[in-house]
Design goal:
With 126 residues, the chain is an alpha+beta fold. The chain is 39% helix and 25% strand. The chain contains four helices and four strands, in the order ααββααββ. Strand 1 and strand 2 form a beta hairpin.
Length: 126
């Protein structure tokens, strides 16, 4: 169907049909089919980077396997509730974060600059 669209546009370019005629033809052809999305691969690592802003050198660099992070998030929710900590009341939903990571969330999830301590903190899921 893409070939027909290109042919119609070339006909307009060559002056064989008007823009209005081309619009009618393109509408009759319908919307182009979108390519199916490639399945997202599951994240494999949670990376934590803390950089000294003065020297631009890393202070901390930690790479954690997602399986360990998943276990920690499941356990953290239970442990926090035993200790009387209301993470949901503080705006932290570990179960939501866990679901997002398990269902394909990738990229930078935390990016903070602490001007007082002169540090840059990044947490990435890859």
């Amino acid at each position: 169907m893409e070939e027909e669209r290109v042919r119609v546009l070339n006909m307009v370019k060559e002056g064989k049909i008007t823009v209005e005629e081309a619009m009618k033809i393109l509408e009759a052809l319908g919307t182009p089919e979108e390519e199916p999305e490639a399945p997202q691969s599951k994240a494999r690592w949670l990376r934590v980077r803390i950089t000294d802003l003065k020297t631009n050198k890393p202070k901390v660099s930690v790479n954690l396997p997602i399986g360990l992070v998943d276990w920690a998030l499941r356990t953290g929710t239970k442990v926090a509730s035993f200790g009387g900590v209301d993470l949901n009341g503080m705006g932290v939903n570990l179960e939501e974060l866990r679901s997002a990571i398990n269902y394909g969330l990738k990229g930078k999830i935390i990016d903070v600059v602490d001007e007082e301590e002169q540090t840059h903190i990044e947490v990435l899921v890859e």
